[in-house]
Amino acid sequence: MLTSLKLSRYIVTSDLLSAARTGFQGRVVFPTRSSSPLTVDELTWRRIQDGALDALPPNAVQRLIEAKVLVPADEDEFAAVVSENMAAIEQQDVLYQVVQPSAWCQLDCSYCGQEHSKKWLGEEQQEEFLQRIRARLASGRYRHLKIGWFGAEPLTGLTVMRRLGASAQALAKELGCGYSARIISNGIGLTPAIARELLEQHCISEAEITLDGLAADHDRLRFTKTGKGSFRKIFDNLRSVAAATELKLVIRCNVDRLNADGVAPLIEQIAQAGLAQRVQFYTSPVYAWGNDADQTALDREEFAQCEVEWLALQMRLGFQVGLLPPRRKIVCMSVQREAEVVDAYGATFNCTEVPYVPAYGQPNSYEIRIPVSSIKVRSGAKLHAGSNETPANKLHNFNQQLLQGEHLQCASCNMLPVCGGQCPKSWHEGHAPCPSAKINMKERLNLLFAADQMTE
Ligand code: SF4
Ligand code: SF4
């Protein structure tokens, strides 16, 4: 039986580590197919690598099988991973739809690729959107509707949110589905009163806002259309919303070469404000958003090494830190069956990064060409009818492309189960979007081991 097992190709390990207190020597083994790390002593690890499984106790072998460190010898793991991903997409019973109620934003961030205008989603287009949701929910394949409110700045379209959100909630209820929502906001309008409204009337449980450092760094990157800084207003809102409401708060920090030194001070200030256990914090490298914003990016290795230090600092200060990426079967909304982003003009997309970006042409090359409302939605139907060659379909068919031999870097990558390919649009545009965890996974596992030792 043991000869029918092999070491999975989807494994990352820590360095060889030792625990001074117990004398343990071994590694953290991270099978990305299960995302369940195991701490394994060095002798056992060598036996696993050598295939000397007979020398291991049966319960240890069983544990390794369950964690997918050991897999059937004849399994094509790549095909299995991609098939699981495709099955998860097929079986997904949460309908996720993104609305951009407004094309306006108060900010003029240096890295933003969008062009903003004072345009709000009209009532006719709201009704068309609701009809499409009705058809999708009525197909019976969904048990839940989730709305993502996205920008430009969605809170500048609060009137639309009030009308459309209430109708979407009523629709979900009528069709026997649950309802939830989240919002990505610049944080300027996120006062405690608005946060309470989002929670109580819009069923929005989570808000993500952006802080790119303390005032000097943040205001250099995220300034208003009239050139004023925005840090003070956003940080004050963050503090008061955290104190006055239960809204889950996520802080994103975009990092380039110039603000990298300001990330640690920002983390410290958030902790000093008593928010370490109240918010979630993550960093993201600036990237090309239909523009050349990536010109100021840190190189990937440098970002990945800095990120480990920021993670360690957060752990020291009491933040909840996600060191290990979970299994990611659905890479993003673009591969979902009936993904839709509707912008303030009523145009539809299957990717949140493309609306309002002039670099994608006029009309936008990523727009879903066939009006979604004209596609008969039924169980088993595809959203993206028409040519497979449209950019929207290219994104949508990412997993099929993997199986057909495209994206060879992903096909040979041990992070595929937890990464999923990261961003189909980036691959379509010729950029490898590998997340920092591909580079710093070993250090993350080292950190996990150190944290476990401290806890023990
Ligand atoms: S394709 Fe990329 S940018 Fe578009 S939604 Fe997916 S992850 Fe985001
Ligand atoms: S995007 Fe990069 S890290 Fe992710 S699976 Fe593909 S090659 Fe691996």
TrEMBL record:
<dbReference type="InterPro" id="IPR058240">
    <property type="entry name" value="rSAM_sf"/>
</dbReference>
<keyword id="KW-0004">4Fe-4S</keyword>
<dbReference type="InterPro" id="IPR013785">
    <property type="entry name" value="Aldolase_TIM"/>
</dbReference>
<dbReference type="Pfam" id="PF04055">
    <property type="entry name" value="Radical_SAM"/>
</dbReference>
<keyword id="KW-0949">S-adenosyl-L-methionine</keyword>
<keyword id="KW-0408">Iron</keyword>
<feature type="domain" description="Radical SAM core">
    <location>
        <begin position="100"/>
        <end position="243"/>
    </location>
</feature>
<protein>
    <submittedName>
        <fullName>Radical SAM protein</fullName>
    </submittedName>
</protein>
<dbReference type="InterPro" id="IPR007197">
    <property type="entry name" value="rSAM"/>
</dbReference>
<keyword id="KW-0411">Iron-sulfur</keyword>
<keyword id="KW-0479">Metal-binding</keyword>
